[in-house]
Amino acid sequence: MTIEEALREASKRVKKVATRPRLEAEILLSYFLDCQRTTLHLLADRELENAKEYFKLVKRREEAEPIEYITGRVSFYDLELEVGPGVLIARPETELLVEKAAEIVGEKKIERVAEIGVGSGAVSLVLARRFPHLHITATDISDKALEYAKKNLLRYGVEDRVKLIKCDLLSGVDEDIELVVSNPPYISEEFNLPDPVKYEPKEALFGGKRGDELLEKILECVKRREIPYIACEMGYDQRKSIEEISLKLGLGKPIFYKDLAGLDRGFIIKS
Ligand SMILES: C[S@@+](CC[C@H](N)C(=O)[O-])C[C@H]1O[C@@H](n2cnc3c(N)ncnc32)[C@H](O)[C@@H]1O
């Protein structure tokens, strides 16, 4: 079987789970052969050795495992992060959260940030690289997430400016924080997840029975500690409840932002 034939066959097999089957077949093959995707075109007529092993990867994808868990990597901004089972795959919409947090850091000359729910490290990593003066304390309750975050911070050389702490919310953070940034779990436990998302850790997805329970706890924590700025991602249908919680706590009216699909996706509060 040639490389081109293998790609055609793999595209057919992953079609039912992949929106761009050919692209995914190529990503899997370039990962398998440890080469650039563009190189595959040059090798199209070459015989694919070990085709059986390649089709084992294709089978995992056919069964709806996220491609990022199979290849062990995800792109976020210009970075390539290591990910795997046990840690959330950073999503493109979270780049908007980073932009919102970056605007506040730049505008208010912020030096101390805390991230709640660091996951693979995506958000803290981009902020730390963009603002060399910034000190970030990033928390998570998951050992696996903290393991990946550590690897990714080390890979990009910002481990001395992003301190990782295993704790609930900010319970293990003693220093004064000026900005909290968070993409917390915010899906309702009653929501039926699509197949690929079922592979991701529950503690990274579900925020409680309603979905916004952890967001509420974050806002209470920010209020209690008198942290002046917050930037959070949220679910597209949580605008009303977040506004109510924020006003009830006396944090003021949140400023909401939308994602590229035009859905409410997050908010900032400057109190
Ligand atoms: C949606 S993921 C976000 C990961 C990463 N920040 C990103 O955007 O890709 C949420 C993260 O919050 C963590 N988490 C859940 N509950 C938490 C809590 N009470 N305190 C701290 N972290 C928590 C989860 O383990 C998970 O890594």
Would you give an account of this structure?
There is one protein chain. Strand 3, helix 7 (122-130) and strand 4 form a beta-alpha-beta unit. The protein has a 7-stranded mixed β-sheet with strand order 5-4-3-6-9-11-10, with helices on both faces. Strands 1-2 form a two-stranded antiparallel sheet. It has a two-stranded parallel ribbon with strand order 7-8. The model has no long low-confidence stretch (mean pLDDT 96). It is of the alpha/beta class and 271 residues long. It is elongated, with a radius of gyration of 20 Å. Helix 1 (3-14) packs across helix 2 (21-33), helix 1 packs parallel to helix 4 (51-62) and helix 2 crosses helix 4. The protein has 11 helices and 11 strands. Helix content is 41%, strand content 18%. The longest helix has 15 residues, at 94-108. The protein folds into 2 domains: 3-63; 94-270, 3-Layer(aba) Sandwich (Rossmann fold), CATH 3.40.50. S-adenosylmethionine is lined by residues 88, 90, 94, 116-120, 122-123, 139-142, 145, 168-169, 183-185, 203-204, 214.
Count of discrete structural domains? 2
Small molecules held by this entry: S-adenosylmethionine
Query: Which strands sit side by side, in order, in the main sheet?
Result: 5-4-3-6-9-11-10
CATH class of the largest domain: Alpha Beta
Shape: elongated
Residue share in helices? 40-55%
Determine the N-to-C terminus distance.
Answer: 63 Å
Reported for the largest beta sheet, the result is: 7 strands, mixed
The CATH homologous superfamily name of the largest domain equals Vaccinia Virus protein VP39
Give the count of helical stretches: 11
Strand content: 15-25%
